[in-house]
Design a protein that fits this description.
The complex is a heterodimer of chains A (about 120) and B (about 110). In chain A, about 0% of the residues lie in helices and about 55% in strands. Chain A has strands at about 5, 10-15, 20-25, 30-40, 45-50, 55-60, 65-70, 75-80, 85-95, 105, 110-115. With about 110 residues, chain B is mostly beta strands. Chain B is about 0% helix and about 55% strand. In chain B, strands 2, 4, 5, 6, 9, 10 and 11 form a 7-stranded mixed sheet that branches. In chain B, β5 (about 40-50) and β6 form a beta hairpin. The chains are: A mainly beta (about 120), B mainly beta (about 110).
Chain lengths: ~120, ~110
């Protein structure tokens, strides 16, 4: 079975500070991993995805994530938080199997940016 | 590309009434997913289709819920009869059906059952 665990349902950072949102995965086979962002009253939007091409993945809005197999982690980072980054962030996993296309989402982390 | 289109954006209905939520996936995407989001339970996968065929409906909460995909460009999620505990945001998402693509989500339908 595959799953993701997001540590911390709420994270607060000051504007300009480092953003670190944690995600650990569990998978019996090599996974594909994703980060999505949800702004208030909107659907989820893909931030970035890991597909095995490179362990450090860059996404939109200055976010990046690093796949660490030894730690089964895929943490999301951004060097300097902006007020516009305030949103809920979801980590998701799917298996590298033909036909296994459904994503399994974590419970989400709400990011607050303090001016 | 207009993205995944859901309608209505908001629905308020009385308990016992039938509710139909609609979704138009992105053209060319052959997988479609219905999710429900609540504060208590987060994102729950209700059902998904591949090539218009329901593949896994194990997340559908009970017989009051049903979903159809009569063609590649349209899907409905129906609740009959509705109950207050069905109040949630319902999302539709579609994908090309081939890994490693992620999903494209619609903006959701916020359902309130009073």
């Amino acid at each position: 079975a595959q799953s993701v665990t997001q540590l911390g349902s709420h994270v607060s950072v000051s504007e300009g500070a480092l953003v670190l949102l944690r995600c650990n995965y569990s998978s019996s086979v090599p996974p594909y991993l994703f980060w999505y962002v949800q702004y208030p009253n909107q659907g989820l939007q893909l931030l970035l995805k890991y597909t095995s091409a490179a362990t450090l993945v860059k996404g939109i809005n200055g976010f990046e994530a690093e796949f660490k197999k030894s730690e089964t982690s895929f943490h999301l980072t951004k060097p300097s938080a902006h007020m516009s980054d305030a949103a809920e962030y979801f980590c998701a996993v799917t298996l590298r199997q033909t036909g296994a296309n459904n994503l399994f989402f974590g419970t989400g982390t709400r990011l607050t940016v303090i001016p | 590309d207009a993205g995944v289109i859901q309608s209505p954006r908001h629905e308020v209905t009385e308990m016992g009434q039938e509710v139909t939520l609609r979704c138009k996936p992105i053209s060319g995407h052959n997988s479609l997913f219905w999710y429900r989001q609540t504060m208590m339970r987060g994102l729950e996968l209700l059902i998904y289709f591949n090539n218009n065929v329901p593949i896994d409906d194990s997340g559908m909460p009970e017989d009051r819920f049903s979903a159809k995909m009569p063609n590649a460009s349209f899907s409905t999620l129906k609740i009959q009869p509705s109950e207050p505990r069905d109040s949630a945001v319902y999302f539709c998402a579609s994908s090309p059906g081939q890994l490693p693509y992620g999903y494209t989500f619609g903006s959701g339908t916020r359902l309130t059952v009073v």
